[in-house]
Structure formats: structure tokens, C-alpha cells
Amino acid sequence: MSALNGLKLVAAMKPTALSPALIRRNKLLAKIGEQQAMAQAQADGTAYTPTKIKRIADGNGEVKQVTVPKRVKAWWWKGDNGKTFLGVRYGNRMLELAKGKAAVEVANGKELISVLGTLRKAVEQGELDAQIEAVGAAVKARLKKK
């Protein structure tokens, strides 16, 4: 028992399920990670081709798992004035980062990568939870009308 005396023992249990806010946050973090990898590949001059595993039935009815390219769209675009803008997407909707502002202006590819890193930290700290919840509520309301 003397070996356990040196440890800090607490009465904590692992949660059985994640909260909905944490699930949404993790989903957005995964998408930001894809955007970071795509921006880094663009800066390096290489192609970014993520893959996913898909189940396909052949002519005999046998189901096989195959690796196929995953379609990922960039969140950044060039504006009319030649500047680059970055918008954060959750599902098919843009998040409003501040009241009436849904995009970040970036100067170049290097700044794009650092802005994505900053956004990642903001999501990890829960700073965009209200915006994510608002998008989720809007989608739920739209589905409820149908």
C-alpha cells in the first residue's frame, strides 16, 4: 500500500457520453485540421488528397471496402479586390465569427495557416460554441418546418 500513498487518488469516473457541445466542437476541429493540411499542401506546392473508406457492392452482391478520395472544399477564396478571405463552415453554413462578420481577411498562404491555427485554438477553448449552436438550431428549425 505504500506505493499508492505517493499518488493523488480522486473519486472520478470517465463520462459515458460526450456532451452535444463537445461533439460539435470535435467535428469542427476535424474540419479545421483538414483545411490546415490543405493550406499547408498548397503552400508547399503539393496536392492534398485525403481518402475515406467506402463500402461498395460488386456485381455478385459481395460488399467490399475500398479507399476512395474524399472531396474537401477550401474555405478560402479570392475576393474581387484580389485579397484572400477565409470563412469557417459548419456543415453547409458559414459561421458568423462576430456580429455581421463571417470571414477573415488574410494576406498570404502563410498567414492563412496561422489564422487556421488561431481558429483551432478558439474552437478548443469553446469560443465558437454559441455560433455552432446557432447554426445547429437553424438547421433543426428548418427541418421541423418540413
Summarize the helices and strands and which ones pair or pack:
Layout: H1 2-5, H2 20-44, E1 51-57, E2 63-69, E3 76-78, E4 84-87, E5 89-90, E6 93-94, E7 103-106, H3 109-124, H4 129-145
Antiparallel strand pairs: 1-2, 3-4, 4-7, 5-6
Helix pairs in contact: 2-3
Write a concise keyword list for the protein shown above.
single chain, 146 residues, alpha+beta, two-stranded antiparallel sheet, 42% helix
Q: Could you please describe the fold and organization of this structure?
A:
- This protein has 146 residues and is an alpha+beta fold.
- The chain has a domain at 19-74 and 107-145.
- 42% of the residues lie in helices and 20% in strands.
- The protein has a three-stranded antiparallel sheet, with helices on one face. It has a two-stranded antiparallel ribbon with strand order 1-2. Strands 5-6 form a two-stranded antiparallel ribbon.
- The longest helix has 25 residues, at 20-44.
- The protein is extended.
- The mean pLDDT is 89.
What's the short version?
The chain is α+β, with helices and mostly antiparallel strands and 146 residues long.
Average pLDDT rating: 89
- Total number of helices: 4
Biggest beta-sheet profile: 3 strands, antiparallel
DSSP, total strands: 7
H/E topology pattern: HHEEEEEEEHH
Q: Tell me roughly what share of residues is in helical segments.
A: 40-55%
Spatial arrangement of strands, main beta sheet: 3-4-7
- The N- and C-terminal alpha carbons lie at a distance of 63 Å
Low-confidence segments: none
Tell me the β content.
15-25%
**Rg from Cα:** 21 Å
Structural class: alpha+beta
The rough form would be described as extended
